[in-house]
Amino acid sequence: MSEFERGRAAIEDLAAKGASPDHNEATTRRSVIDVLLKDVLAWPDDQVMCEEHVEGDYLDYSLGSPQRRAILEAKKAGLTFDAPAGVQSGWHDISTFYDHSKPNASAINQVLGYCQKAGVGLPLLSNGHQLLAFLGSRSDGRKPTQGKALYYSDLDEMVREFHDLWDLLSYDGIGRGELARRLSSRSASTPPPPPLSSRINSYPGYRIGSEMETDLRILGDLFIQDVMREESITDEFLAECYCSSGALSQYAVVSKEILRTRYQALDLQVNTESARERKGPNKNLTDDVIAGAITRRPIVLLGDVGVGKSIFLKHLFRIESKGLLDKTVVFYVDFLKHSGLIDEVPDLVVQVVIDTLRTEHKIDITERQFVRSVYNKQLNEFKRGIFGELEDSDPGEYRKREIEMLASHIEKSYEHVRRSLTHLQSSRGLNFVITLDNVDQHQASFQEQIFIAGQSLADTWPCAVFMSLRPDTFHESRKTGALAAYQPRVFTVSPPRSDQVIVRRLEFAKKELQQFGRLPGFPTGLTLDSASLVIYIDVLLDAFENNHQLVELVDNLSSGNTRKALDFVSTFVGSGYVQTSRILDAHKTGRPYVVPIHEFIRAILYGDHMYYDPATSPVPNLFALSSNDAREHFLLPMLLALVQALGERESGGFIDLRTCVDQLQALGFTPEQIDFHLQRSVRNGLVEQTDLGDAGHLVRVAAAGGYLHKKLVSNFAYIDAVVVDTPVLDATARGLIRDVRDIGDRADRADAFVEYLTKCWPFGDEVVPFSWPLVLDDWKRSMEAVRRGAARVADRRSRAQGSGPIR
Predict the structure, then answer these.
(1) DSSP string covering 83-109, please?
(2) Looking at the record's lineage, which domain of life comes first (predicted)?
(3) If both were cysteines, with which of 128, 287, 485, 807 could 19 make a disulfide (CB 3.0 to 4.6 Å apart)?
């Protein structure tokens, strides 16, 4: 039976019993309203809070967690809504009830007051057999008491109209927002007008760079020796490019306490240690590698995506512990390009072991003599068995039968590899490590399955097993999933400083160019020779060693994800928004070249496109809308600022999501709007969210979220980009937001957009987590520099008499 069918049966049963007019409020709640909410409308127990305290008042029912979706005020059964004669169940003006009697007005005002204090948009009134629902706040210029209401006159009407009752007031129905939409008519649920991008025929378009810039783009990955390609990871690269994890950035816009305790706020239910100490790898970690085959439990490396778990392991085995582990064979099973099918994992492990032994150690586990050594015991048993007599009487047949027996063992490849490793350990004194790497690139369910496979390997194979997991996945699985039954050894890996990683990669590339005249895999026939590339790399090195604004940008937007930081550099190298020829010309004339911060920002924001496209840009639009409500322009920056402000007071930076949602609702934002921007912020890496099960959810701002609402929000290059993607609700302002190319026209458009946002700001000088007036101060200062630059461009263009647009 579905939840809908169970709900219909429950309302029929409730209507048959009826609600006694003698029931007091407590009895009405217990015998009728609890049944209506939980049994009829399928609200889970953890989504129904009773007697919740909010600013001196106690709410009879608060529905929804962590976002309060509705507040229901219960009245004793004898108190009816005094509806005018002839008013039946259905949609009515709320004034029909509000103006009809003082008791009605008093009850409506009471629940409206609760909603305003709690920041909830849907108030409900019920006495057990009547139900009234309406909007607690509106954004269309009308008072709540001037809008529409949904009215059910008795339980029998709820039975007759159960489809609508379910669609509008059930747990899933309220979550979809259908009731709020139908009550809104002209309110915030009306879709906003399309942004400027909808009026641009070529949007998002592609920016074609010069031949030189195109060549540089091809070489971008070679500059930073992409760690994703196993074949490029030489011991020399590991020795010169590896950066120790855990160094805290001086440019982070979030507190160092948050960075320092990034994994401590999660209750992992297991002891954790840092994988690195000041002088090198944690001794307990290397001891566990040596004892791995004895302990028979996997070693888990915890770290967020992109913090450098893969290169940490490679550096550990091939550089730092090379002498200690000189008789240790390491098998790297890389799941980066794996399809994610768990059934294929044993075959992948087997193939990696076979290939590694053959190519790196010249051991072929299918070679005849090796196989006979592995199965020596089985050969002796075979000789004593029923075919043993054939050895003398028919040697040919005996050898054939013997080969068939050995072949049957080899065909069981997984077991054959295990037996081969056991033989190599006993005969040659070798130790083995299997590294299940980049597991965290897959879904949580796949990570759990890989952990089970890793546990099986550690338990049955003569090897130590390493695997990498994300902290949130590990935390959730420890509570309710596959990891709850195991006690692995757990070490944490913190990210290195992104600027140090970038500088070391660039220095390594420069050394390779100067020593060999080319980079590994360097294509031929390009417009740039090695000398020009060295000049280009020198400019980038100077930028990341001395341009603090640039380092701050990359360090924060990458949020400790080294891969993302390196991607930013690759995107910049050869970008159509960077005039490469100007860099080389400056060197020829002996002038130092400083990478303009706005060029780097534009390269990141636009990528290969002519216009900002939120679907492909790694940086989201702060001012995007989901509704026709001008206040919503400020919801995402408000959310980020609030999570950061509250988190800075907590160890690890995590706060209860419910606290955040409560404060945002109190500022007038609806649950639907909050959901929309919370999901955007999680999806774009602006905040981290952790599910604690029955205990709720925790959220913490990421460095990218802090940088976006503190720094980038007032940057001209950012505003100039996102203006094409932002719906503008005011028709006059919308007319000023046009598709323009000239820097002066773009500055005018940006000023018009900021002026529009200023008119939309609903909080005046009120003290709130995010302050648009403070942003305006920074904006005015930055625009002075932009206007000066635009004037210089106009002057050069005038003197050049018709030169094209200057980027």
Answers:
(1) PPTT--SEEEETHHHHTT-HHHHHHHH
(2) Bacteria
(3) 128
What range does the domain containing 53 cover?
A: 3-184
Residues 98 and 121 in one domain: yes
Query: Please, is 468 exposed, middle or buried when counting C-beta atoms within 10 Å of its C-beta (0-12, 13-18, 19+)?
Result: buried
User: Strand runs (DSSP E) across 480-570, as ranges?
Assistant: 489-492
Query: Averaged over 670-699, what is the pLDDT?
Result: 82
- State whether 32 and 158 are in the same domain: yes
Percentage of the chain lying above the pLDDT 70 cut = 84
359 plus 387 within the same structural domain: no
Q: What value, to the nearest 5°, has the Cα angle with vertex 637 and ends 685 and 647?
A: 70
Contact 116, 107 (CB under 8 A): no
The Cα 122–Cα 136 span in angstroms is 5
Assign residue 32 the CATH number of its domain.
Answer: 3.90.1570.30
What one-character-per-residue DSSP string does 128-153 give? SS-EEEE-S--SSS--GGGSEEEEE-
Report DSSP state, residue 587. Answer: H
**Ramachandran angles phi, psi of 133, nearest 5°:** -130, 140
Same-domain check for residues 601 and 634: no
Residues 6+ apart with CB under 8 A from 390: 397, 398, 401
The answer on 371 and 359 residing in a single domain is no
Residues 752, 652 within the same domain: yes
Sequential DSSP letters for 365-419: TTSHHHHHHHTHHHHHHHHHSTTTTHHHH-HHHHHHHHHHHHHHHHHSHHHHHHH
User: Is the bond preceding 346 in cis, omega lying within 30 degrees of 0?
Assistant: no
Quote the CA–CA distance of 740 and 514 in Å, as a whole number.
44
SS3 173: helix
Closest CA to 704 of 681, 721, 727: 681
Whether residue 713 lies inside any domain: the answer is yes
pTM: 0.75
Which residue's structure tokens are 């063992």?
A: 409
Span between the terminal Cα atoms of the chain, in Å: 64
- β-bridge pairing 328-334 and 123-126: unpaired
> Which range is least confidently modeled, 11-15, 89-93, 353-357, 800-804?
800-804
Is the model's pLDDT at 77 over the cut of 70? Answer: no
The pLDDT of residue 205 is above 70: yes
In the numeric block, which tokens belong to residue 525?
């026939």
- 532 shares its domain with 545: yes
Give the count of domains, the chain: 5
b vs e for 239-251, b when ≥16 Cβ sit within 10 Å of the residue's Cβ?
eebbbbbbeebeb
Q: Which residue has the tokens 């909410």?
A: 37
